[in-house]
Design a protein that fits this description.
It is built from 4 helices and 6 strands. It is α+β, with helices and mostly antiparallel strands and 113 residues long.
Length: 113
């Protein structure tokens, strides 16, 4: 059984516009607040199936207001626009980091459409 990457550090940028997540694999991902907001795991953004995903617009200046632990498996990110319903599991944060280039490019393309 392969263990999933485990976070070793979460560091919120002083400007509250980026969260850096370090994993026990040695990988470190800087995730912007906008990226985290538009990829929120909440049903509001993701829907209940992949074809229901919503493109969230106007979040270029969103900031992270707070980060709250959810058990030992996730965090809840509270954004300054009031959104706080997504639980970001360690696996999901790793996925967001690992797939950031492709997910961000798809978001920017959809936003322009």
């Amino acid at each position: 059984m392969n263990a999933q990457p485990w976070p070793t550090e979460l560091r919120l940028d002083p400007t509250k516009t980026a969260l850096t997540v370090s994993f026990d694999t040695g990988e470190r991902f800087a995730l912007t607040a906008e990226y985290l907001r538009v990829e929120s795991p909440s049903a509001e953004v993701q829907g209940h199936s992949p074809d229901q995903k919503q493109i969230v617009m106007g979040k270029e200046k969103v900031k992270i207001a707070a980060i709250e632990p959810v058990g030992n498996y996730a965090i809840r990110i509270v954004f300054d626009d009031g959104h706080d319903t997504g639980f970001y599991s360690w696996d999901y944060l790793y996925e967001l980091g690992r797939d950031q280039k492709g997910k961000w490019a798809a978001y920017l393309k959809a936003r322009r459409s």
